[in-house]
Amino acid sequence: MASNRSDLEAENKALKNMLDQITSERDKYKKLFEVSGDALSIIDLKTGKFIECNQAAIDMHGVESCHNFINLSPSELSPKFQPC
After folding, report:
1. Would you say 53 and 42 are in contact if contact means Cβ atoms under 8 Å apart?
2. Which candidate in 30, 34, 42, 62 could, as Cys together with 52 as Cys, close a disulfide (CB 3.0–4.6 Å)?
3. Rounded to an integer, what distance in angstroms lies between the CA atom of residue 84 and that of residue 77?
4. Residue 66 φ then ψ, to 5°
């Protein structure tokens, strides 16, 4: 029984280490997304609506906030007539 418990504790520790590593990687890429000078946004393929954006996207499209940007579709931000 002690062997099973120690195996579970070792597995639990390994899983916690993996979770910490994944969380660290996620935070790193989230920060890169947020501080990029390029306008970045993520669209939900099912709804066609934006689900995430960075400050550069907000500034480029003249939207007040990320909250206002989310749930818009690209067509709502595009001009009615595209210049040739």
Report:
1. yes
2. 42
3. 18
4. -65, -35
CB atoms within 10 A of CB 11: 10
What is the chain's length? 84
DSSP at 81: S
Q: Does residue 41 sit in helix, strand or coil?
A: strand
Q: What is the spatial distance between Cα 81 and Cα 73, in angstroms, rounded to a whole number?
A: 16
Find out whether 64 and 72 touch, Cβ atoms under 8 Å. Answer: no
Q: Are 55 and 34 in contact (CB under 8 A)?
A: yes
Q: Does the model's pTM come out above 0.85?
A: no
Q: Please, which pLDDT band fits residue 61 given cuts at 50, 70 and 90?
A: very high
CB contact at 8 A, 62 and 78: no
CB atoms within 10 A of CB 54: 22
